Amino acid sequence: MKLAIVGTGYVGLVSGVCFSDFGHDVVCIDKDPAKIALLNQGAVPIYEPGLEAVMARNVAAGRLRFSTQIAEGVAGADAVFIAVGTPTRRGDGHADLGYVRAAAKEIAQSLTGYAVVVTKSTVPVGTNRALAEIMRAHLPEVEFDIASNPEFLREGAAIEDFMKPDRVVLGVESARAREVLDEIYRPLYLREFPIVHTDLESAEMIKYASNAFLATKISFINEVAALCERVGADVKSVAKGMGLDGRIGNKFLHAGPGYGGSCFPKDTSALARIGQEHGVAQKIVETVITANDHAKRRMIDKVRDLCGGSVNGKTLAVLGVTFKPETDDMREAPSLTIVPALVGQGAKVRVVDPHGRKEGEALLPGVSWEEDVYNAARDADCVVILTEWNAFRALDLKRLAGAMARPVMADLRNIYTPQDARAAGFLAYDGVGRAGSFLRDMPMVAVAE
To answer: 147 has which bridge partners?
Structure first.
């Protein structure tokens, strides 16, 4: 089938590349000439493991190309996917639908025959029907259907998630549109991956409800972790004991500095606003948002306590600033709250991140960047683990401690144990909800502000 993907951000590019790997003829469209030029040179503007190789294979096979011309890509397409951004609107928490509406208008002006216009962007309930009205106003003479096909891709594992999904959700309301979408996803149907057919509103809601629930699990375990610290329990043991219950599951029960990224922050905010607009307050989701903000700020207190009550004049080595490993995405990363607060309190911060520097340099002014962990830790007063990259999971802790002026660790991802840190010669270690964290071995001399 001939497919057009409008938008070559994370969702659009991954989807277009994977659809072409299914055997479809795909054109990915973006208004940014620099991005399209980069893609036409075979380079990928985002870091996603495996994406560049799959893209190159399908470009070479003639199934995938890139263009800035929406009319060229949409003409004759069987389906057109809208995969543009829906960022949180400044000031009120709503999803900003400006890019989606603009894409719908341009698609309407470019269609040459029947096509299914599929929204992959995350949009509030009711948006697809509104888009249909916008398109009919611009395209009264051409037949089309609107469909909703939300994405559930994890950054860092997007190719596998697309090729081996937990489910594919298709919001369709005509037999013709369903037939087109079923044919597009036929390779997954043949391998018996679940395909959920539903109405437009339910498809839209599935995306928001799924992300809000996962965010809730993260905030829940972070609050449990704070309680564990007070009562002497270990959150890793608690999470394991909980996760073995099949009704709960172990995923997203990892205590840390809070959730971030392109989805959870904006989707929880949007769902809360949708509830308010319809007079059905989403009180759990609203509390999750507040709890996540608190989790980030609690990490600042941890680092300050490890530094004797003040970070003023202290040198900190921060390991990882992207919101999660295996991505260069900095959107809503906990580091964007934690690092500027530490810098603002007088800390000298050195940052190491395998792929975070490209975006991080502009977002984290006042820090210095290092390529090597041990160089970053040289004569430092505290090492802070913010992102659990594999490169940080097997450090030589004795070497790390030996390089530091004061061997102190704030392990905000719990990738080591207090016993590991103590054996390596650290004077103090604090994780998130960890039994055995120790501060008493370190002289707690506060530095005057």
So the answer is: 118
